[in-house]
Write a structure and sequence with these properties.
Strand content: 5-15%
Order of helices and strands: HEEEHEHH
Shape: globular
Structural class: alpha+beta
Strand order of the largest sheet: 1-2-3-4
Radius of gyration: 17 Å
């Protein structure tokens, strides 16, 4: 039981440190965002979810509310098993992503094993920034294609 508590504490610490690191780097590259945001903000334009606080499970780790871009750091507890076994997300993680997408969010997932591979310290900052830029671009690429298609169809 003690070992389980120690593992949970270590995983939570890793997750919060990574979250802070990711948030800071996103600010450095000009990605405006808030932390721990309800995915229901502005849903359906009805105000039905105004004031909904949600909980830790439903909160978006890092969100650009205006563009509805959600950045989720998926720590070890989000995956089946404790190793890099193909990165199979747990059902709860998949369900949250589906819900956010159905609410109009573009979801960028950052798995712990990708982030962990970079290491710690200033030496890894450039690689981390490039990784974040690539992940954001991958999430936005379908929107960029649609916008280009609409522009080329215009007279």
């Amino acid at each position: 039981e003690l070992l389980l508590k120690i593992n949970r504490t270590a995983m939570n610490r890793m997750g919060s440190q990574a979250h802070d690191d990711i948030s800071s780097l996103l600010k450095d590259i000009g990605f405006e965002h808030s932390n721990e945001v309800s995915p229901f903000i502005g849903s359906a334009g009805s105000g039905a979810f105004d004031g909904f606080e949600g909980d830790d499970f439903m909160a978006i780790d890092i969100a650009n509310v205006d563009r509805r871009i959600a950045v989720e750091f998926d720590g070890p507890s989000h995956f089946l098993g404790f190793k890099k076994t193909g990165g199979v997300p747990k059902g709860k993680t998949k369900m949250k992503a589906r819900l956010m997408k159905s609410l109009g969010w573009k979801v960028v997932n950052i798995p712990w094993y990708d982030w962990h591979d970079f290491g710690i310290g200033a030496n890894y900052k450039l690689a981390k920034v490039e990784y974040l830029r690539r992940k954001l671009l991958e999430a936005l690429r379908p929107l960029i294609r649609r916008a280009k298609g609409k522009c080329s169809a215009m007279p």
